Amino acid sequence: MTTPPSDSSRPPNGTDPTATTGTAPRRSGLALKDIVLMVVLGTVFGFLYWALVQAWTVLSIAMGPAGDLAQHFLLGGWLLVAPLAVAIIRRPLVGILAEVIASVIEVVFLGSAVGPLLFVAAALQGAGSELPFALGRYRRYGWARFALSGLCGAGLVFFYSAFRFGWYGQDLFWLRLVIQLASGVVLGGLLAKVIVDALVRTGVLDNFAIVRDRRTGQGRAVRRAR
Fold this sequence. Notes:
Structural class: mainly alpha
Number of helices: 8
CATH architecture: Orthogonal Bundle
CATH topology: Arp2/3 complex 21 kDa subunit ARPC3
Strand content: under 5%
Radius of gyration: 19 Å
CATH class: Mainly Alpha
């Protein structure tokens, strides 16, 4: 059972616990607990992504002739695990790996009809979602960074899908793109930030880099104020 942090370790009022730029000394490689968490996240979201496929089917039927656009409205939901893993663990490649693990669950254990090609899409989603955090050297986790993560993840996999399904040259190409990018920002970016902040408040992440970096940043701020 995780021991709740003391009052002195909690962020002051108005502080964003995931947006800190102060960081503790970086380790080389992943700790065992980080690997376990990444696998757990990938597994859980593998099942959630499969459930989202069922929602996609229902929505596409409900939308009638426009049902082919349903996938773009929901696409951001398939990006969630990458920014979550990156924000919590704060190490390179964890977002890509978490997405690929989720795709393995979908294909191997849940029988996704997409087959092994889903691994490619998952890697692209993870790479696009992780890119903004990598450009910030895994130190910046504000709202704008998460929104950009969703935008890049949705955009990168869109162009792969457009090639695969022959969307280039279609009248609906730009409509597809706009809807998917918006979904990426909202579901794959901003929603991920909401989930991360909620998890931090529960205390279950106190042993991970996300909280350690927050505490280090607060300590530096206190020393500068003296």
